[in-house]
Each structure stands twice: as C-alpha cells, then as structure tokens.
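Box S1 | Example of a co-folding query
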Amino acid sequence: MSVLHSRSADPAASQMLEIAGRDGRSLAYDRYDDMQPQCGYGQLGICCRVCAMGPCRIDPFGDGPQRGVCGATADVIAARNLARSAAVGAAAHSDHGREIALALLATAKGEARGYRIRGEAKLTKLAREWGIDVDNRSPEQIAEKVAETALAEFGKQEGRLRFLQRAPEKSRRRWERMGATPRGVDREIVSALHSTHMGVSNDMKHLISLCVRSGLADGWGGSMIATELSDILFGEPAPIAAEANLGVLKADQVNVVVHGHEPTLSDALVAASQAPEIQQECEKVGAKGLQLSGICCTANEILMRHGIPLAGNFLQQEMALVTGAVEMMIVDVQCVMPALKELADHYHTKVVSTSAKARFKGVEHVQFDERRALESARDILLAGIRNFARRDPSKVYIPAEKESLIAGFTTEGVFDHLGGRYRPSYRPLNNAIIDGRIRGIVGIVGCNTVKETHDAAHLALTRELLRHDVLVVQTGCSAIACAKAGLLRPEAAETYAGRGLKEVCDAVGLPPCLHFGACVDNSRILMACVEICREGGLGDDIAELPVAAAAPEWMSEKAIAIGFYAVATGIFTVLGEPLPVLGGTETADYLTGGIEQDLGGKFAFEKDPLKAARLIIDHLDQKRKGLKLAPMMYEPRPGMESRL
Ligand code: SF4
Ligand code: MSK
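Box S1 (continued) | Returned holo structure for Broken Fe4S4 cluster
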C-alpha cells in the first residue's frame, strides 16, 4: 500500500493527495508529518497554561515534578483541561442553536425576508410541549413565542433546561445525584470556565462533573434547540436521494462549495441558486450552470433538506480546492482550516467568510445579513460566477468518484418508515431488537483526523457492526464517509448487513445506515433512544438499552462535549483517539470505569476499529442479557475484513 493510499480509504481523496504532492502543495497530512514528534505532555493532558506561573508540566514517568507550581496534580490538570474543552465544544454547538433561534425570531417578526416557517407541525408540537398557547395564533405568532422561549434557555439563571424533561426519569435522577443537572446553557459554560480558573476547582471528579454539565447543556440544550428550531425554520428533513464525493463537482459548471456548520446562509444559497438569473449569468461566462455542493456539516444541512450533493468531509476541504474547479468556497464557522486561503491562492478559488464570529487572514469577508438573506446569497453567488473566467483548465482534475445515497432521516421520520403511514410507531424496531433480528443500535459520528487513515475507521467499524446485525445511525463527517462508500443506500443491506438486519431493511426499504444529519443533530439520536424507551419492552432507561456510540476519527472539541452527553445519558461511547487525559491515571480510570456507576455510561478508547466493534458488540450483548432478550436469530454474516 502506498503512503498516499494509507492516508485515505477514499480513492478520490487518494488521487487528490497524489496531485497535491505532485504540484508541491502541502495539505494537512504533510503538516502533520512536519509536526512530528508531537508534544507528549499535551497528548497526555498534563501540560497546564492556566496561569502565568506556568506553563507547568507533570513528568509522566514519575522522575520529575508531580505537581505544578500551584500544587495541581496530573489529575487536576488533565481534568481541568478536559473541562475547558468540553465547555468550548458545548459553546460551539450552542451558539449555533442561538443563531437559529435568532433567525426564527426575525422570521416570525417579518424581519428576515427570504425565510418562512416550513415546519409548522413541529412548531405546534414544540409550542404545546413548552406550554405556549397555539389556539387562534398564526404560525408566526407561535414561532415568536417559541423563539423567545428558546433564547431564554441560554441565559436562564436557575431551574433546569426545558428539554431535560424529555429524558427518562432515571437519567434525570442520576444527574441530580451527581449535581450535574444543567441550568441555562450559557450559565453552565461560564461556570465551567470560572471553575477551571487558577485556584478554583481542584477535585478531579468535580471537574468531570463540569464536563457533564457542559455536555448535557449541549446535547439536551443548545444542540437540541438547534435541531428543533432548524426543523421549524427550514423544514423537517425527509428521505431524499443525493450523491457524495468530489465527483459531484462539474467541469463545465461554476462550482460553489459551502463549508462549515450553520444552515442560515446555505439554505438561502440553495434558494438563490435556483433563480433563472443565476443560470443566465452562468451562461454569460461560458458555464453550463451552477453546481452547489458542500463540505462538513453545512453540507449535511442542505443535503438532508434539499438533496444538495456532498463534495466531501473534513479532510477533503483542501482537496476540493486542489481539483482546480472550485470557483468559490463559502465558509462560516467550525472545522474550517486556516490553511485554505494559502492553498486557494495557488488556484483561482475565491474563499469568502460570512459569519461575524470568524475571520481568516487575507480572506474576503462578506457579512451575511439574515434580514436580506436571498439578496445576500445572490450577491455571493454572482461573485462566484464572475470568478469562473479565472479558472485555469490545465489545473482542473475532478475525480470520477461519486456515490448515491439516501439522507434525511429523523427521530420522527423513522416512525413512519418502521410503522407505516397508518400506525407510525417504534414498535417494529423494538420488536426486531427483542426477537433478535437487530442486535442493537449504534450511533457512529464525528470527524476525520490525520492521525488515522481518512475514513478507514468509520468504514471498518460500520461494516463490522452491520454484519453483526447492528443498525447504524450516523451524523457529521462519519455519515459523509459512509455515504461516499455506498453504505447509505438501501442496497448496502444486501452487501453488508447480517441476515436479521437485512430482513428488517428489506421489509421497510431502509438503508442499514441512517443519515441523521449534522453534528448538532446527534440530539436526534438521543431522542430516538427516548422513543425506544417510551415504546416499551426494552426497559425504561437509556442505560439499559442495547445501544452505543462511537467517534472513531474524532478531532474537534465538540466531539468531547458530545461524548459527555452520550455517556451522561447512559450510552457506552468508544473514541478512536483517547481523550487527552491519560497522564491523569485516576481521571482516565474514572472516565473508562467508575463514571458508569454515576451516569450509566462510560468511555472506551480504541483506535483499532475491529477491536472497537468487538467492545461494542460485547456491550450490546451484555445489555441484551440484562434485559433477558432472545438470543440473536442468526449467526453474523461472514467476516469482511478483506474489504476494508
Ligand atoms: Fe502551573 Fe498551577 Fe498555573 Fe497551571 S494553574 S500553570 S499548574 S501554577
Ligand atoms: S463537521 S465537528 S469535522 S463531524 Fe460537523 Fe465533521 Fe467533526 Fe467538524
């Protein structure tokens, strides 16, 4: 296997790496190589820069200092660093949720032209859940109250987050016992930052409880608000066909790629791109049309609602530029590499930033204005079209690879698929688990990392679980990895699923891997677990269910917050890269062991995807045993390691 092929499991990505290497372009993998050896103290989490008496570092071999200048131990330093990262991750997701709430409020007040309320059923449902009067009120009037109530969840000083009421009672009791029930989203994040200031909290378990608070404030707070309000504003996703990988770029069209996370601009771009004027402008510059596509979670947002194709996942953002065929890359927030501008300068690509929260040196900033969303989107697209003339055809190489997929599954939508239109219910799913056709359900989520072969762990873990009759639900860049490999097609059941899972998929026409959205939409997975509990027959606690989560290629601080809300909700969570706490042995032991007593879930760290799959399968079987479920109906499908 060549070095380049060992860097990515995706043939399109491997081709782009080869071209980048030939042209002397440095991509993330090269910068990673340049960075070796990486700092061992940082990897173990035992370097502290919290105050100016430091930096302090603890000797992991026991020969050197075992305390920082202030006396902080390795465990305090590791847990404190982790609490800060969890707070940052929760802040990122939650601020995303806040933006959606503000956009909904502006739409409700008639101040955001270009948007309208597309998810009225969800609006009414959420208003009722929150005790907002829906009688004799227009959707806009209801939406105004819902948006105001959602915004109040961020700044709430006392009481608990509203969505916690959705969680099973046993989870809520555990959070109370641990003193980790989150109040307002912002309050938890500020508290975590305060408590990790020099000389505040110096107790490992208390510091981990801050991770839990931030995580819960994210999963059952900011992220859930983002998901619910996005469905209200942009419409509830429904199954939709699309394509994925760099092959979706078009040689004879203007290619505009959106990258980042927030759907407010990208949704407007979709609408603006369909105007006849855009087609006419493309023709004027000699292009046959405009191809909109996406990278990372902005891509997932417009994929699941509009079928806009996925150009790739996190590690493909630079590769998209190396195709030489991208006229414009529009970025907002999160997971956008600072390296893009320098790379874009070798091609004709115009990179444009659009969020007030982010600037990139040398990159033109066009502030997106939600009050005139369509006009803003149109102006940005016109600039992209004008850039087509600067494309150098000799630099264009678009790999042929692209794969079809079905996206757009939601907690609610799964009811209809499984139970049919006349009796929407999770009953058939619960029954399939109870009678041993489906072993359990696993959420495989998260990013790519240069520390592992791009996409390889996502694919190997997913395929291994499928053959053991595990239904896989996915979000974020993991969903994109599997989309590119054809795993999000109903036909994938034929090729990869065990017999029991295949029977279920065939009966209802579902793929064996369900695309549940962007990384904020992990809240949909939480709610699917709640619905399984509600349906009955599998216990009344998510910690009792045969479910698990995995982020085999995670890299973002958001993944830390997500990991904590999964574990805190009772879900066994396997991470590829370990959390950076291994230098604090008590911290690492607690997170991978003792925390289960407190919260029902725990972490495991395992880079090898087949070993990770084994951990997960053993866990699912243990939960099945605990519930006294029937043995699995069929043997696993024969091993497919050779396909990895
Ligand atoms: Fe060192 Fe303590 Fe300051 Fe951290 S808080 S840098 S361990 S003195
Ligand atoms: S984009 S957070 S690399 S999933 Fe959501 Fe992908 Fe991870 Fe960013």
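The pocket of iron/sulfur cluster (ligand 1) is lined by residues 48-51, 53-56, 68-70, 72, 77, 198 (CB under 6 Å). The chain has four domains: 2-57, 77-234, 246-395, 404-626.
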